Amino acid sequence: MPAMPQLTQQNLPVNQLIEWYSSGVIAIPEIQRDFVWDAARIRLLLDSIQNAYPSGALILWRPEFKTQSELEMSIRPERLHLYQDHPPKYLLLAGQQRLTALVSTILPEDQVSSQLGEEISLPQLFINLRT
């Protein structure tokens, strides 16, 4: 019987996760639902992060794509353009709502919709990044 893959825990800064997401290192798999959080939920997530409260884990999986069709069947179609030259390093199995919420508040809106394929319509959400 093959050995069970080992899970490893890493603490990554928010800016690294956002960079990975926006550059295509992390892909959203087809099995993930659309983004559904509203501004109130996003505000609570940001408050938890600011106060160093637990805000949940992200589960990333390192897949091994053998063919282009495996890649295309695994990743959300609106993000496939990010993987024309290289496959993603990770698929995001858990935490998509949280990571997409962070990206939607930090990156410019046009980048979130055009480059990342996320249609996020948020009411105005003002955050004091200094505090």
Structure commentary:
With 131 residues, this protein is mainly alpha-helical. It has one domain. The protein has helices at 14-23, 39-50, 68-74, 96-106, 109-115; strands at 26-27, 59-61, 90-94. Helix 1 packs across helix 4 (96-106). The protein is globular. The model has no long low-confidence stretch (mean pLDDT 79).
Give me some keywords for this one.
single chain; 131 residues; mainly alpha; three-stranded mixed β-sheet; 36% helix; 8% strand; globular
Summarize the structure.
By secondary structure, the chain is mainly alpha-helical.
What does the average pLDDT come to? Answer: 79
Strands ordered across the widest β-sheet: 1-3-2
Quickly count the domains: 1
Radius of gyration computed on alpha carbons: 16 Å
Low-confidence segments, ≥5 residues, pLDDT <50?
none
> Main β-sheet: number of strands, strand sense, barrel status?
3 strands, mixed
Shape: globular
Proportion of residues in β-strands: 5-15%
Beta-strand segment tally: 3
- Which structural class best describes the helix and strand composition? mainly alpha
The H-and-E topology, N to C, reads as: HEHEHEHH
Count of alpha/pi helices = 5
Helix amount: 25-40%
Distance between the termini: 52 Å
